[in-house]
Amino acid sequence: MIEFSHVYKTYPGPVHALKNVDLRIDKGEFVFLTGPSGAGKTTLFKMISAYDVATSGDVKVAGHDLLTIRDTQIPFFRRKIGVIFQDFKLLKDRTIFENVALPLQVRGDKTPAIQRRVYEVLEQVGLAHKHDQYPDFVSGGEQQRTAIARAIIHQPGVLIADEPTGNLDPRLSEESGY
Amino acid sequence: MRPPQKNWALKLSTLVVVTACFVVMGAALLISQNFRNILTLWGEDVQMTVYLAQDLSDSGRQDIQARLKENDEVGAVKFISQEKALGDFRSQMASYAPDISQDEELLRLIPASFQVQLKSSVATADQMPVLQKLSEQVKGLQGVEEVSYGQDWVEKYAALVSAIELTLQALCLVILLASLFVMSNAIRASVQARKDEIVVLEMIGATPSMIRKPFLMEGALLGVSSSLIAMVLCFVVYVGIKNLLTTKLSFLQLGQHIEFLGPVVLVAFVCVGTALGAFGSYLCVRRINDGFAGSQGTTV
């Protein structure tokens, strides 16, 4: 599902962000990536989500070779992954329903199907009753669950969570299950 | 509960800045157009006088008149008889030099003449060579004593018109470029304020055109609304100036020659405004998916 083979990444300087990284994460695996600041976590994240290209080596994610992928194919590749940001990145001028519906709208799904699926996922994360609320008017934990709902609504093959509890207090972190 | 409308102040300030740009552009167009009107008005005074010999017969005079009229660039040809010329001279000089106006011998020397005006279709810059050529042709006709067309005045007038038109064109170009720069920056600030939205859209797989579309629409809407508001403001100022010229400054006799922009120019102005707004937005969002999230470093 995710495969890095002899991956090097060097930024101008030169700064060697990644050196000879070999990594294989199979379907269904749950992997934590930890390390000190500057260890290369951001670089790895950018490569998995096709925001950066390795200097050398092979990167394959969800069946796509990210070294040879064309620019026009990148949006379609990203529809196969789900991302949860540390600061959630919810759109504040849209309701929780509208935020969660975004990936399906981008994919071009029909409105009735979107409504059905959004309520299903909101039910799953326990936010169905807050579907018409705006992000600034719900708690941090609820914002995080909204972000999770948005990341999983299109049933991605890969789910990347960027320090998903970094902005939550310990009690809410525990509640969220991360 | 409604979301906080944080972008209202930014949107309003963008609208004000872009409208101000369009007001300056509209004012430059108005000034340019009306300056041209006034210069054309002055240009109507450009004429040639063909003085006739004292002993010229009626048929000779008619022949000269016919030769003048057959020229494609000649508009009106007016005959001033010796009697009329004498009458005009008397009325003009009576108060300044009464003795001269009573001197019959001297007055007999004033000849009959033709006053020749060029067609309005002759461009100001072409008036001088046309008059020179015509003068050479007419001088050779039998019965023509002298030809005068105020060479100095015409030359200076043509040079003035060329200089003013060139200056106004340069000014319009500078204002247009400055407006595009200001608009682009104003829209860029609006795009920056929505960068989170772009990051999210990129991350969930929106194509560049899907992301750009609302920004281009917003830019175009900004262009339409600000150019329309600018035209309304320009019209209000125009009405005020016209009122002033027809009342307190009526002695200038310019009131009836000042006009607002025509419908074609108005439509073109709004279309250009819309295109500028959309293009300004495009300049800000053309590099999307390179992208905001990638370039600004999404941390892990």
Order of helices and strands of chain B: HEHEHHHEHEHHHHH
Termini separation of chain B comes to 33 Å
Q: Please count the helical segments of chain A.
A: 6
Summed up, the helix count of chain B is 11
Global Rg of chain B: 31 Å
Number of strands of chain B: 4
Short structural description:
Chain A has 178 residues and is of the alpha+beta class.
Describe the protein's architecture and organization.
The complex is a heterodimer of chains A (178) and B (300). Chain A is α+β, with helices and mostly antiparallel strands. Chain A has helices at 41-48, 74-78, 96-107, 111-124, 140-152, 170-176, and strands at residues 2-11, 15-25, 56-61, 64-65, 81-84, 158-161. Chain B is 68% helix and 8% strand. Chain B is built from 11 helices and 4 strands, in the order H-E-H-E-H-H-H-E-H-E-H-H-H-H-H. Chain B has helices at 8-43, 58-69, 82-93, 98-102, 104-107, 124-139, 151-193, 195-203, 208-246, 263-285, 292-295, and strands at residues 47-52, 74-80, 113-118, 144-148. Chain B has a 4-stranded antiparallel beta sheet with strand order 2-3-1-4. Chain B starts with 7 loop residues before the first helix and ends in a 5-residue tail after the last helix. The model of chain B is unreliable at 291-300 (pLDDT under 50). Classes of the chains: A alpha+beta (178), B alpha+beta (300). At the A-B interface, helix 1, helix 2 and helix 3 of A face helix 8 of B.
